[in-house]
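Ops channel
N.P.: pipeline sanity check, posting one input/output pair.
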């Protein structure tokens, strides 16, 4: 029974991963189409998913410099500010959740430590 369960889990993981890969490829193709359709977009951005981490870091730095030079009312500037704000908000939520989990688990862990020291 355990072996059968393991096989079923393996097959399900394989199916889910395959679906995610297909979805990711479809999204990349849609983005490539948008790049080709927009005359201002750089064609060199097609296939970015194949770049190394170092190459992506260079592009990231380039975009950060580009954002610094945009006027404050520009749509990209506003979008970047909103994304940065959202990242900060999510980070704060994760910290608060971790703190709450710690407060919830501390009495349980304290009891376990006391029980183990008695034994």
């Amino acid at each position: 029974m355990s072996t059968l369960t393991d096989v079923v889990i393996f097959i399900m993981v394989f199916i889910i991963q395959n679906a995610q890969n297909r979805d990711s490829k479809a999204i990349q193709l849609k983005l490539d189409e948008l790049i080709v359709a927009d005359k201002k977009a750089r064609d060199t951005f097609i296939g970015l998913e194949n770049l190394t981490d170092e190459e992506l870091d260079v592009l990231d730095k380039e975009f950060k410099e580009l954002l610094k030079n945009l006027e404050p009312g520009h749509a990209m500037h506003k979008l970047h500010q909103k994304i940065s704000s959202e990242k900060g908000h999510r980070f704060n939520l994760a910290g608060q959740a971790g703190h709450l989990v710690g407060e919830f688990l501390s009495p349980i862990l304290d009891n376990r430590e006391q029980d183990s020291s008695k034994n």
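N.P.: looks fine end to end. The chain has a mean pLDDT of 78.
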